[in-house]
Amino acid sequence: MAALPKRIIKETERLVSDPVPGITATPSEDNLRYFHVTIEGPSASPYAGGLFKLELYLPDDYPMCAPKVRFLTKIYHPNIDKLGRICLDVLKDNWSPALQIRTILLSIQALLAAPNPDDPLANDVAEDWKKDEQAAIKMAQEWTAKYASTSSQ
Amino acid sequence: MPKEKRRFFTPSPSKDSVADSKATCEAETLFVEDSESPNQSQEEEVESTNDKSSTNPDNFASFKDVFVSILGSIPEKVVQRLYKKYNSSSKCVELAINDFLENQERSTKDEKTIQQKDVKLFSRPAITPRASESSSVSVPSENADSGFWIKYLGSLHAQAWATRPIARPLSPRERIDIRCLTSSKIRPSSSREKSKSSPSSVVRLFTASANDEKGREVGRLPEDISRILSPLIEDNTIVVKAFVTFSDGRRLSIGDSFHLRIDIYLSEAAFVKDLGHIEQADSFITKRRKFNHEEPQHIGEDSLRSRQQAISRLFKRLRLSPEGSMLFETSVIDVPDENRIENTDISEVTNHFSEDKLDVDQLQQIYHINHLFQVLEQLPTNIAPPEENCKIQLRPYQKTGLSWMLSREMEFKEMETLSNINCEESVSSSQIKSNIPGLKENALHPLWSKFRWPEDKSLERPNETCRFNDTNHEFFYANIFNGELSLKPPLAKTSLKGGILADEMGLGKTISTLSLVHSVPCDVDYANSQHNDTSYAYGTTLVILPMSLLSQWENEFSNTNNNPHHECLVYYGEHAQNLRTLLTRPKANKVPVVLLTTYGTVLNEFMKYSKNFNSYSSTSKQGLYSVRFFRIILDEGHIIRNRLAKTSKAVYALSSDRKWVLTGTPIINRLDDLFSIFKFLELEPWNNFTYWKNFVSIPFEQRHISQALHIVKTILEPIFLRRTKDMKQPDGKKLITLPEKQIITEEIAFSEHERDLYSNFKNKASQLFNESVNKGDVFKSYIQIFTYILRLRQICCHTDLLRGVNEDDLEVNTFAEDISVSEDIADDGIEGKLLKRHLDSDGLNLNEISCKIVDALDLKNLECSICTSYPIPLKQVLFTPCQHAFCFTCILDHVDFQTKLNQSPLCPNCRKPISKYCLLKPDLAHSQYSSNLKLSTWSSKPRIHWYNPSNLSSKLYVLCKHLKRLEELECNENVVVFSSFSSFLDIIFKQLNDHFGDDVEVLKFDGRLKANERSAVLDRFNTSKKNRGFSVLLLSLKAGGIGLNLTTASVAFLMDPWWSPSVEDQAIDRLHRIGQDKSVKVVRFIVSDSIEKKILKIQLRKKQIGEAVGVEEEERKKRKIEELQLLFEE
């Protein structure tokens, strides 16, 4: 009886039928636990105008444990390292089974709008951010244009 | 050597001495020795009966007085004889009295034999029939006119030894006479004294003389040969001619050996003329000897026995073996002496203890009967029961089954009519009869073998004397078991109308049998004739069933019955007085063709009425025993496998001409299970237990296994039909196609609390076991060890099962603490303790929380944030103290997950710390909450109370998860839950009702229900069709295993493993059988690292080496210890 739990099916349906603005999540055809995600950069952030690709995977223990999310698009962010791994509390210790894919993706979008260099993942990026925020923002914008622009993808 | 009898006079000299033999064998000695003159004494005797003057009158008179004063009046002749005998010795009176007491009967017989001997003095046919002798000599028996022939059987070579020096050397080919002396033929020997070898019969060798002289004794034959020959020579079975084969020309002195060739001829007298009595159980075997040494009821019993042994040994010596395939493994078949009281006692006792179970292979051997398919092929396959009575279609193999059953009942005309309806080519009944080999009425009786007359290789051809027509008699027949010989083949009378239908379970025996009943519902011949017999229920078939199957048969009958005038009644004993009238004079519009009753009812009636069987009181006209039924059918016939049980006896006492036994497992433990069925079927001669024991049980025990199995197969062959699910039809297709079956074993982990309890018991048990093994007295503490094992199994299921434990049990007292721990948690009054134990926050007030929940939340529309189900069925809701609602499985899983990661569990919604023991559950009993969602008001507010998570053991919790999932998936598949513990089923019942709402209906079926309750439960389970939800049936393994049809369910859960894999298979077969259209999924729950895994190992072992245990005590013990070790090893 290892069929897909009802919750995942429900979530998937809702994600497709009633998406969060600025976020899309579609399940892969081969593996229904694997999602192709895109997040638009929030308008009031250096990432505005960019479309970022992510991958999201639901482990077997889900929803008891958190989904695994990773950025596929290169992004200049203190809480996201060059491999795309995200440092977000709800994805680790603060996970609760009451949270859903939807809420997680919203939190990631919120993280883009409000970077937190005091809890860094990518050390050098966080240092740059603290040293010179303006330069870092500019760098982020450049990267966005370079890697995450809608035309370059 | 048998001990000497205790006498109250001085014992007479032992029998072996010549003097004694001389003294006592006067009537029997036929040929006189040279030196002595017993012949003279014989002649004297003959004279003495008529002539008193030869004795001294005075001495005689005083002798007689003394004699008579001691012993009372005695025939004159006897006194005279005794006087003559002991006259010369000093203690003549004593000896005479001894003699008299010993030979009481013999003295009267003596006279007869004396007279007989007058005629037959020289008429012993052991002597070579010389052509010149008078016909009186040649006549062996009373049929003087039948002519006398002998036929060569074979030759033996023997080494004889000389008893006296012989003047002239023996020449080769010299004729030697063989003569027997039997001194004790008429002596009524006590059974203790009689030994196998009959030492008193001595075979002597005499030289033959040309003239009619007595000849001189030259020697003796060795003991083994004389044992064989003497009984056969005595009763005229054989005629022997001996020739010297080798002589070295020397004269022989005492003790020298010389070689003989003995030609053996079977004489006509050996063959039975009348075969009629063969069919009856041989009287000498069935008569039971009384304990005291009484006169045997048949003088010939002992001699028959010795003859049988002699014949079987002779055949072996001569290397005669039967024609064809009836070859027996052992060479000599010794029917054990029934007269040996010691032996019979011991064998009865050992039969009790020696469980001579069959192993799987032997069972397969029996079931696989070679000629089955040949027979079946001959039967018409397009047969169908008459439309007017039966409205369903049979499957092909059921049709063959029906044909076979009709042929067993000799209903060939019916078969013809029924099979011709549908097919073009007509099959005539005579054609059918001739084609079926098993039905040929010239089948050989199973115990007889056919022998071919060997070529005549004798040295001396007895041409004139052998007036034997060789051409017609190429064969003769012998029964090695009782020593009878016959020239005509003894046929086995197949007078049994009926048999054993042993199709594997699930193949539709019920339908096959009902089709038989519909085809031949009543005795047509009787119905058409004058009905005079008021006790013959000629139109009724009695079916005896276990109680749980009653409703099933009723349903099947109504499904198949097409005739409005036929009905099926259930009998419990209520209309006992009217039963007879009801059955023998049925009303025209409602004929009870089928009468259903249970084994229990039969037993009750037997107990009530059996005393009156032979009387004509009015009670004998009541109940089941007041009529003779047209047909009796036993369903699950293996229930009567114990022939000594009262139920079995009750069943045997019913009467009918046609009898059938239906069972998927005719042999459960031992071969003797079959005996009981044969006894019910009245299958001659095997329904006689002594017969059965002698020819089947005892050979099996003595390891002559293939012989015993061969006999069983031969007996079964004509009356037994078995098909299995994996057999193939003649065209290669499988017999029945069933949807697939999937069995999954799911491992479950203990909770901490359970693990602690389990470990405690386990340690104690291991300790005890190891101690016993070291001391070597495992069997002394076996019961205790087994009790531990039982406790361990119970813990694996649910810790509450230990609550029923006796205070006297030692184990309990030492674990009182642990038990009380579980009790504490279970006891609702101690919530306060719990709270303090598990939470260090400010005390939570139940009432406050309860009000908050009830007022604030819409209890009918709760959503679980963990699994997103909406709305949560109210029975599955658990609340946290922070008033958040979840499904019970979701929140408990979450708490367990967090605990495993060593994190303190937090409420998913608000992250407040929570605990498993601080959850709340609504109690719906007090509020009238309707599952009808439209009802939006409560009549009274539901109560919220603390939830006790220990109500669900780990195993039960997993079951709940599975059921919840099934509910989610909405597949409407009915579920069956099996367990060996009915108290566990009670717990499951309660918990499932607590946690699952109206969509999931839980029903319990166990042995405590009465018949009508059982059928009510089954009907409800089978017929309830819901749009959503499903039914769950809780069954105990044993109750469920009996024939129930649960094909409406397609999911099964086995809560705990059973020792025997076949019991589990049978349980699963309740679902996976004909009528199942969905694929069957089975889940077995096994607790990891527990005794249940070891039980699985034992199951595997049993499958591999077979379920039976060896015959010897030692082997069985060894196996049991091995199994225990398996259970306790790490």
TrEMBL record, chain A:
<keyword id="KW-0808">Transferase</keyword>
<dbReference type="InterPro" id="IPR000608">
    <property type="entry name" value="UBC"/>
</dbReference>
<keyword id="KW-0833">Ubl conjugation pathway</keyword>
<dbReference type="GO" id="GO:0061631">
    <property type="term" value="F:ubiquitin conjugating enzyme activity"/>
</dbReference>
<feature type="domain" description="UBC core">
    <location>
        <begin position="3"/>
        <end position="149"/>
    </location>
</feature>
<dbReference type="InterPro" id="IPR016135">
    <property type="entry name" value="UBQ-conjugating_enzyme/RWD"/>
</dbReference>
<feature type="active site" description="Glycyl thioester intermediate">
    <location>
        <position position="87"/>
    </location>
</feature>
<comment type="similarity">
    <text>Belongs to the ubiquitin-conjugating enzyme family.</text>
</comment>
<keyword id="KW-0547">Nucleotide-binding</keyword>
<keyword id="KW-0067">ATP-binding</keyword>
<dbReference type="Pfam" id="PF00179">
    <property type="entry name" value="UQ_con"/>
</dbReference>
<protein>
    <recommendedName>
        <fullName>E2 ubiquitin-conjugating enzyme</fullName>
        <ecNumber>2.3.2.23</ecNumber>
    </recommendedName>
</protein>
<dbReference type="GO" id="GO:0005524">
    <property type="term" value="F:ATP binding"/>
</dbReference>
<dbReference type="InterPro" id="IPR023313">
    <property type="entry name" value="UBQ-conjugating_AS"/>
</dbReference>
Automatic annotation (TrEMBL), chain B:
<dbReference type="Pfam" id="PF08797">
    <property type="entry name" value="HIRAN"/>
</dbReference>
<keyword id="KW-0539">Nucleus</keyword>
<keyword id="KW-0234">DNA repair</keyword>
<feature type="compositionally biased region" description="Acidic residues">
    <location>
        <begin position="31"/>
        <end position="48"/>
    </location>
</feature>
<keyword id="KW-0479">Metal-binding</keyword>
<dbReference type="Pfam" id="PF00176">
    <property type="entry name" value="SNF2-rel_dom"/>
</dbReference>
<feature type="domain" description="RING-type">
    <location>
        <begin position="864"/>
        <end position="911"/>
    </location>
</feature>
<dbReference type="InterPro" id="IPR014905">
    <property type="entry name" value="HIRAN"/>
</dbReference>
<comment type="similarity">
    <text>Belongs to the SNF2/RAD54 helicase family.</text>
</comment>
<feature type="region of interest" description="Disordered">
    <location>
        <begin position="1"/>
        <end position="57"/>
    </location>
</feature>
<dbReference type="GO" id="GO:0005524">
    <property type="term" value="F:ATP binding"/>
</dbReference>
<dbReference type="InterPro" id="IPR018957">
    <property type="entry name" value="Znf_C3HC4_RING-type"/>
</dbReference>
<dbReference type="GO" id="GO:0016818">
    <property type="term" value="F:hydrolase activity, acting on acid anhydrides, in phosphorus-containing anhydrides"/>
</dbReference>
<keyword id="KW-0862">Zinc</keyword>
<dbReference type="GO" id="GO:0006281">
    <property type="term" value="P:DNA repair"/>
</dbReference>
<dbReference type="InterPro" id="IPR014001">
    <property type="entry name" value="Helicase_ATP-bd"/>
</dbReference>
<dbReference type="InterPro" id="IPR001841">
    <property type="entry name" value="Znf_RING"/>
</dbReference>
<keyword id="KW-0378">Hydrolase</keyword>
<dbReference type="GO" id="GO:0005634">
    <property type="term" value="C:nucleus"/>
</dbReference>
<dbReference type="GO" id="GO:0003676">
    <property type="term" value="F:nucleic acid binding"/>
</dbReference>
<keyword id="KW-0547">Nucleotide-binding</keyword>
<keyword id="KW-0067">ATP-binding</keyword>
